[in-house]
Amino acid sequence: xxxxxxxxxxxxxxxxxxxxxxxxxxxxxxxxxxxxxxxxxxxxxxxxxxxxxxxxxxxxxxxxxxxxxxxxxxxxxxxxxxxxxxxxxxxxxxxxxxxxxxxxxxxxxxxxxxxxxxxxxxxxxxxxxxxxxxxxxxxxxxxxxxxxxxxxxxxxxxxxxxxxxxxxxxxxxxxxxxxxxxxxxxxxxxxxxxxxxxxxxxxxxxxxxxxxxxxxxxxxxxxxxxxxxxxxxxx
Length: 235
Hints:
This protein is of the alpha+beta class.
């Protein structure tokens, strides 16, 4: 086998090291099929992608069962991947005025005919919300060499009992804000309101807002002897 095959196998083994035996092997083949692009040819179908990888029928079934019923969650695996990439030192975080940006957004995978898909996400082409599986993601902004590459650090799915984007957005802001380092700042687009950022206690953020936007400082400015006194100046 080539060097890159051994390299990918070692990385996948490190990511899945803490997953229970049996489930880890099933997820290993699943990730291999994903990395090799076989899900593109199968248009997202799991079993055809695994079978195209050359796995026997029983291994395909075990891998599908590991995905659906295995005892694993994606966030711990993502945290291991994040640490591995940082330790290797090839990925470099971008910094602006001493702060490193961490982007946060909602992503919709549109599945209009998927049974039980009750979530919805805005689609600009349709100019309305369409049935979708909605995920909240947060990623550190950086690059490998000259290639810009986001490094995922958070993936959240809506709770089965509450599929509203507002609740998912609230959870994403709370968790992403709590994980910020002292020199990191959360960057969001216009879909995230300033009130939600403040309620989520995000310590530092940059938000895109409407062109006409009104804000104020925590304290009123001192009276400059011109014009009527404000209530704060009188007090």
